[in-house]
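call fold(seq) -> tokens
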Amino acid sequence: MTETRTDPEVRLPRTQSGAQPQHLLLTLLGDYWYELHDHLPSAALVALLGEFGISPAAARAALNRLARRGVLESSRTGRRTGYGLSRRLPAEVRLGHASRNAILFGDAAPPWDGRWRMVVFSMPEDRRNARRAVRARLRWLGFAPLFDGVWVSPHEREEEAGRFLAELGIESYAVMTAQVPPGVPQGVTPVDAWDLERIRSAYDAFITGWEPLLGRVRDGAVGTAEALPARTGLMYDWISFPGVDPRLPEELLPAGWPRRRAHEVFAELYDSLGPLAETRVRQIIARHSPELAPLVRHHTHKGP
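ret:
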């Protein structure tokens, strides 16, 4: 007899840095158990997390917490407990859309129309919480502060920015587009709103850190046990870039900008490690559920 339990509401775990067991497990299910609803034995999931140095006690605690949050469904068949992603999860979470969009970051720079989107606002000092919310949202939309209260972006996100300011009850604001006139002296330019050296350093560090492994993969010197944690670590490093790089149009960037090379390293390494990592996941699941192991599959940086 099989019992299935779900919580009345789904509460996703908070995002934290590092290899947090709950987020790591959801990442692995999204990578290798994509769109599947079969419940995997808890012992297999504990062993899978063990590949990343997560202790059995911490792995079981993560499973229990995700089940209590409604993110996972649990079931029992005899004495065996199984877990699978809840069908009640939002589709974008269940299908990994957020991670997929982050993985696609850097694939190709969007065309630019030469216009800047500007958000200008004024807020009383006593509305600090609202001020923080506005700044956080504008950064998420790809804006940066050129001056205090003057935010700019090359991307067509002005409608979303204006809607957010209106919803927040900000009255003193304006949203507009602008162009920098050629030949006119400028004290600062819109590009100065971003710390390009810091962004370049992040890309250079990524390339320096991962290119050696790419060379070893090309030489066939990486095994399945190394490939699984390496591929997940690579993905975690890469998906941090949407929060660092505003994806400025290439014509605004200095010569030799490293984003394209960093993406080439990521894409080739992620795709090359995929079959090896998939094999390792199959091996782990086969120890506990041979009938489910053939369902494991990976996807490339482009998708399933």
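The longest strand covers residues 72-77.
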